[in-house]
Amino acid sequence: MGARLLIERASWTLVDQGVVSFGNFMLNVLLARTLSEEDYGEFALFLGAIFILRAIDYSLISYPLSVRLCVARDDERAGLLGNTSLLAAALSLVLVVVMAVGTTLLEDNILLPACLCFLCWQAQETSRRCLLADFRYRAAVAGDGIAYVGQALLIALVASLGGIALPPALYMMSATFAIGALVHVSKLRFAWPDLSETRLLAREYFSLGKWSIVNYELVLVRAQLFPWMLAATAGTAATASLQAGLNIANMMNPIIFGIGNAIPQVAAHAHRNGNVIGAWRAAYGYVLFGLGPILVISAAGVLMPNLLLRTVYGPSSPYLAAAIGLQLLAVAGVLDYIAEMISKTLLGVQAGRLASVVNAVAVAAAAVLAFALIGPLGVFGACLALLIANLVRATGAVIAIAWLIADEGSRAPARSAAAVRPAPIDKTFGAPAEQ
After folding, report:
1. Quick one: which H or E segment has residue 192?
2. Which of 230, 291, 317, 424 is deepest in the core (most CB within 10 A)?
3. Nearest alpha carbon to residue 260 among 294, 283, 279, 282
4. What is the mean pLDDT of residues 12-25?
């Protein structure tokens, strides 16, 4: 039953994440083909900002919900979802202000569509995470298909009728995200929020998510450092070239994100019923399930980068020069998978501080490498720096989980000895003294 449940959950989380990643892939390819290099580079920076803000919501809302919901009683779930939704809405209002300020500094003409797209994306992703937190991956597929594949199809249709600019594309993305959110919400049961319970839940979520937010912002800073550094030193056209290679390397994302969506709650559930070793064993099955396809995709990127670039962007695309960079990114993706799965496991066993230390070291390495390599080597330097930074992170993650398991193992004999130590003798009556 355990193996069957693992395969069923892992399969459906891959199907759902495959739909999301396929839609994102098609959207990026369409915009790369139709927008100018400068505009597409601007879109890549917009996506980077979205991911940074989404990480805050994930850490303070979605991740604590995934840990909390899997152990909640049936009669608590509707109230938990209602209070969580109120917290998510309040946080979204704060984050959209940040988005507005950042968009104004970057480019005025996408201020309104960018903010609207962010809010609709928030609604879609928050409702999606409510389903995933309860292992309802299959139920999330329809809404995710409408949101992500739907936006790619809609933009492809409009582009075929006479081209497209970035602001209309963001409005169309907003529409499909809003519809996807409604589909997700229709499959959930909410109770009216109780403000007193919401305040208590906010404290609990912050306590659970504070290390997650540090962890994920470090991950995103490490990844986003390279496109922003390229934009600052060589312009957004260079950022577009990096993004073109990442679009293909990101074919691993359905597996990285899909398996990663399941691991925190799987590890948390096993940890409550056992220990860190049990949590890692539970997560390890999911990690192995995704490792095979990760290696296949990476091998394709390493062995035939030119074919992939020509197929995706066309024979006369300016992005064909990114072949060597794509090979580096393909190897970097395998390392990212290993590090991310271990990091998710650490979060599931409440070792977020340890995961953050690993990611802080990786960010420091990425910053040094970015400054050293991007200036003289451009896009190739960014790809090489990302590969080395991912190697540092994967190595640190392996050391962290091994240390955590060894530390728990070393403390187990001491606890066992304490448990069997005979009680002290009361010398007055010759009987065990009260404990």
Report:
1. none
2. 230
3. 283
4. 82
**Is the predicted pLDDT of residue 428 greater than 60, yes or no?**
no
Q: At what angle do helices 166-185 and 111-132 cross, to 10 degrees?
A: 30
Pairing of strands 425-426, 431-432: antiparallel
Closest CA to 156 of 282, 270, 25, 65: 25
Q: Residue 237 is encoded by which pair of tokens?
A: 């056209």
In angstroms, rounded to a whole number, what is the distance separating the alpha carbons of residues 334 and 332?
6
Joined together, the tokens standing for residue 286 give 């999911």
pLDDT given at position 263: 82
| Torsion over CA: 5, 144, 72, 74 (sign) | negative
Closest CA to 340 of 55, 29, 5: 55
pLDDT in tens, 129-174: 888 877 788 888 999 999 999 999 999 998 888 778 888 889 999 9
Residue range 27-54: mean pLDDT, rounded: 81
DSSP alpha helix (H) spans, 314-426: 323-348, 352-420
Over the Cα atoms of the chain, what is R_g?
Answer: 23
Q: Residue 261 and residue 62: Cα distance in Å, rounded? A: 10
